[in-house]
Amino acid sequence: MLAGVSRAGPSYPLLPQNVLRASPRRHMAKAAARPEGKLRKSGFRAVERDERGAIIPKKKEQSLGAFRALPPANLTHPAFKSNDRAVLNLPVFTPSRHLLGQAAEFNLTDNDPVRMFGLPKKMLLEFRLLSKPCSVVRDITVHTAELLGKAGDKSSLETRLVLNGQQGCGKSYLMLQTVEHCVSSGWIVIYIPRAVKLVNSTTSYEYDLRTRTYLQPKFAFQTLQRLQTVNKYALSGLTTSKKLVFEKREIPLGTNLADLVGAALKDPPLAPLILDALMTELSIQTKHPVLLAVDDFQALYCRTAYRDPHFIPIRSYHLAIPRMIMEFASGKRSFAKGAFLGALTTSDTNYKTPLELRDALGLPEEHAASPYHKRSQALAEYTHGLQALNVPDQMSVAEAASLFEVWMKDRALVPSSYDELFLSKYTESSGNPRDFVWKGLLATLEP
């Protein structure tokens, strides 16, 4: 008997056949009776379900985006109204001696390089805080403008400058002042305010078998689009010197350079090839001088964040656009009339100035020299002929006073004694322009 029970197992009462058939129908009937979109309580939280009973996920909150200053017309509260508010009335920027030590505003048009090419991050934040984009005309501003004035009739081989100086001394502002001066003087300007974007793996890239380099089609397309907008008048007066063939597309001889750029805008995959062809045409024409200005210049000589299919870091001179910039910087390619201008960024610790570039510019090494410090011969070839242009580490008292007056008239400062504040902040920052503004004047707004 025990064996029989073990083999048969325990006996359970069988349910009637009609009960088994009715259970699914009752479940389906309840699901059908529930209205669509109604909330069904599950535990302590109410969830929304669809007609099949599946939970409808809630939409995530979208990003608020970047900060932008509120227009003055929207500030209708009485607290924002003041009868004694001074108007920021500044002269238009020109690098002339009669404006030396004074603040001047940039007259930004619709096709201005500031609007099209962009700005470095710190400068962009300052311009958003100020009611008008402006800068102080320093002695180095006038000196650089004079150097570029002489380079307008010479080859870029003779004028390849790299701005160097202490962190926050105003290299980016000097480059922007030079760009604005060249645009107003009829130059063709190519301005890259954040060259680190070319090597930090933030833009797409693809390998090209023809050139055996890695192309960056999206960045090339954007560069062509901005270049055409800023220099549309100058490009309309230039034509191609030969017939150009891009895969299945042909550009005949004598085509307007503006139309050449337009072909890339209509067919974005051709943007890298057309950008290289456009730079070649600009290098041989003599009607307009050309300025190639690159901020974060030292990043092009550092190790990139890009990887090949074997996950080996890609050298910067194996990327098409950085290689093109380095060729114009080193003299491998040159403009018949024009100049090259770069600026070193010392605040980015991920892309420090390498030894090859320091040796070419005659800069002191950060650490003690050692025979074990390796140098790349390939990178050294892209540094020939570069000259350092040192930017003063400190502002003069007159220059700092003009900068102080700009922020004071823009209601950024609220103390009652301005003279004591100016002298204290100028002394604390040791005359450094960035520290004077960010760690000095703007720090007075903190509670």
Task: Describe the secondary structure blueprint for this structure.
Blueprint lengths: L1 H7 L8 H17 L5 E4 L2 E4 L54 E3 L7 H5 L3 H9 L4 E3 L2 H13 L8 E5 L6 H14 L3 E5 L13 E3 L4 E3 L1 H14 L1 H5 L7 E3 L2 E3 L5 H10 L4 H14 L5 E5 L25 H11 L7 E6 L11 H7 L15 H4 L6 E4 L6 H13 L8 H11 L4 H9 L6
Parallel strand pairs: 5-12, 5-13, 6-11, 11-12
Antiparallel strand pairs: 1-2, 3-4, 7-8, 9-10
Helix pairs in contact: 5-6, 7-9, 9-10, 14-16, 15-16
Output the keywords.
447 residues; alpha/beta; five-stranded parallel beta sheet; two-stranded antiparallel ribbon; disordered N terminus
Helix content class: 25-40%
* C-alpha end-to-end distance: 90 Å
Q: How confident overall, as mean pLDDT?
A: 84
Number of helices: 16
Verbal overview:
It is a single chain. The chain has a domain at 152-172 and 186-365 and 373-390. The chain is an alpha/beta fold and 447 residues long. The protein has helices at 2-8, 17-33, 113-117, 121-129, 139-151, 171-184, 217-230, 232-236, 257-266, 271-284, 320-330, 355-361, 377-380, 397-409, 418-428, 433-441; strands at 39-42, 45-48, 103-105, 134-136, 160-164, 188-192, 206-208, 213-215, 244-246, 249-251, 290-294, 338-343, 387-390. Helix 14 (397-409) packs parallel to helix 16 (433-441) and helix 15 (418-428) packs across helix 16. Helix content is 36%, strand content 11%. The chain is globular, with a radius of gyration of 32 Å. The N and C termini lie far apart (90 Å). A five-stranded parallel beta sheet has the order 6-11-12-5-13, sandwiched between helices. A two-stranded antiparallel ribbon has the order 1-2. The chain has a two-stranded antiparallel sheet with strand order 3-4. It is built from 16 helices and 13 strands. One of its GO terms (cellular component) is mitochondrial small ribosomal subunit. Its main location: mitochondrion. Keywords: Mitochondrion, Ribonucleoprotein, Ribosomal protein, Transit peptide.
